[in-house]
Specification:
Keywords: Coiled coil. There is one protein chain. The protein contains 2 helices and 4 strands, in the order αββαββ. It has helices at residues 2-102, 127-136, and strands at residues 110-116, 119-124, 161-167, 177-178. The protein folds into 2 domains: 1-103; 109-178, no CATH class. By secondary structure, it is of the alpha+beta class.
């Protein structure tokens, strides 16, 4: 009887060892699967982080493009308004010249155009009338000078008031009178 117990115990131990070996093999395979899944998860997370960064960059570029578009639209509006003002100035100048021609005396061969910072202000029959209008608007009565022939003209924006003689035949005179 002693032999039977021992063989049975040996057989049970062998069966148990086989079961444990099968369990160990299954656990090793499960560990490999978990490792592969963890690696895949980490790679997917890195890919998602990269996509998130690209999305943030695209949103930043979109915002920059929108700001640039808004700036350019504002600039376009300003240019359109300036063009409209320039067109209106030319129309007013034509109207004033027509009026001056209609009222022209026989000896009147020119008119005097008064500019303020380079923009048309008014048209006058005499230099004194143009200077008087500028002085009534705040120009200094002692501030009138004449332009030396051959000297460079200051830009219109640098001169507060300027009187420019204009021939009624359409050609400009050569000596403007800045204030």
């Amino acid at each position: 009887m002693f032999r039977l117990v021992r063989t049975t115990t040996l057989r049970a131990a062998t069966d148990r060892a086989a079961e444990l070996e099968d369990t160990c093999t299954a656990l090793t395979e499960a560990t490999a699967t978990i490792t592969a899944l963890t690696t895949a998860r980490d790679e997917a997370q890195q890919y998602a982080d990269g996509l998130h960064e690209v999305l943030r960059q695209c949103a930043g570029e979109r915002d920059t493009a929108r700001a640039e578009l808004a700036r350019l639209e504002g600039e376009l509006e300003t240019l359109r308004a300036q063009q409209l003002l320039d067109t209106e100035d030319r129309a007013v100048l034509r109207m004033l010249l027509r009026t001056a021609r209609k009222q022209r005396l026989d000896r009147l061969d020119r008119v005097y155009v008064l500019f303020r910072y380079g923009a048309l202000h008014s048209v006058h029959a005499s230099l004194e009338a143009a200077e008087g209008t500028a002085e009534a608007e705040g120009a200094s009565p002692d501030g009138w000078t004449s332009h030396r022939p051959g000297a460079g003209m200051p830009s219109a924006a640098e001169v507060t008031w300027r009187v420019q003689p204009l021939a009624l035949g359409g050609r400009p005179m050569t000596t403007p009178h800045p204030a």
